[in-house]
Design goal:
Elements: E1 2-3, E2 13-24, E3 27-38, E4 42-46, H1 53-60, E5 68-73, E6 76-77, H2 84-90, E7 93-96, H3 108-119, H4 124-137, H5 153-165, E8 171-175, H6 183-200, E9 203-207, E10 220-225, E11 228-233, H7 235-239, H8 244-254
Parallel strand pairs: 1-11, 4-9, 4-10, 7-8, 8-9
Antiparallel strand pairs: 2-3, 2-5, 5-6, 10-11
Helix pairs in contact: 3-4, 3-5, 4-5
Length: 266
């Protein structure tokens, strides 16, 4: 691993991962992975299919537990948390899933308000105001009565982002937020991620395949390979590192090939 971010102060880390290991049967997916995500910035995980990007994100949002290693979120070691402690931590994390995960049977207002209805004691008026503010922030203020099937793919992503933001998290995690979108809508979602990250003062951690376009909004880039972070730093630092595997990955992306080291589901 080339650590290109060692100059950041220790207290600037929103997320700190050390020696993370995860296997599925005989297959080692995360191999002593180390990662620091600076507070208040966008850190983007990139790399070939099968390198462990989504598995890493699932560990950070506590959907998976490692075989060994530690994860600190806001200086709290979280890998052994249970019960209410996990719920309290998740209140500080918003998650945008690759599919959006909207409820087809609910309109956009009910989809976005769902976490507040289920997890808070806010009044109906307070919930309505929060939903209005959040939908306005993502450019969907007029879509409350529509159902997901009535929205374009890009609008569905906006609605899913609104739901991820509705509880005002400190950390936003995004798993391939532009999957299935055409290039013009991909750029619009990237712009929206950057705008909302700044507006809400978020630490954002994103898995993306949209290389090199995603570099335009990334403050830090983590290049994964074979279950490890091989390169980490600013876009300029990573692209100038002269790493053979990274150059091969970029060449493959330019040719539309993301099959290197492919392992379905990782």
């Amino acid at each position: 691993m080339t650590d290109l971010n060692s100059g950041l102060a220790a207290d600037a880390k929103a997320v700190e991962v050390r020696e993370l290991r995860k296997s599925f049967g005989s297959q080692l997916v995360l191999n002593n992975l180390n990662l620091d995500c600076p507070r208040g910035l966008i850190t983007t995980l990139i790399g070939p299919s099968g390198c462990g990007k989504t598995v890493t994100l699932k560990h950070l949002n506590l959907l998976m537990r490692p075989d060994s290693g530690t994860i600190k979120i806001d200086e709290v070691e979280v890998t052994r948390l249970r019960g209410r402690a996990i719920d309290q931590l998740r209140e500080r994390i918003g998650m945008l899933f690759q599919s959006g995960a909207l409820f087809d049977s609910m309109n956009i207002f009910d989809n976005v308000s769902f976490p507040l209805v289920e997890k808070t004691s806010l009044s109906s008026a307070e919930i309505a105001e929060r939903v209005h503010q959040t939908l306005t922030a993502v450019g969907l203020e007029g879509a409350t009565a529509k159902f997901p099937s009535e929205l374009s793919g890009g609008m569905q992503k906006r609605a899913a982002l609104a739901r991820a933001l509705i509880r005002r998290p400190k950390i936003l995690m995004l798993d391939e937020p532009t999957t299935g979108l055409d290039p013009s809508r991909t750029g619009a979602i990237h712009d929206l991620v950057r705008r909302t990250q700044r507006q809400f003062g978020l630490t954002a951690i994103m898995v993306s395949h949209d290389v090199p376009k995603v570099f335009e909004i990334s403050d830090r880039v983590a290049f994964m390979h074979s279950g490890k972070i091989r390169l980490f730093g600013t876009v300029e630092e990573v692209t100038r590192a002269g790493d053979d595997e990274f150059e091969r990955f970029l060449a493959g992306r330019a040719a539309g090939d993301d099959s290197e080291s492919a392992t379905v589901g990782f």
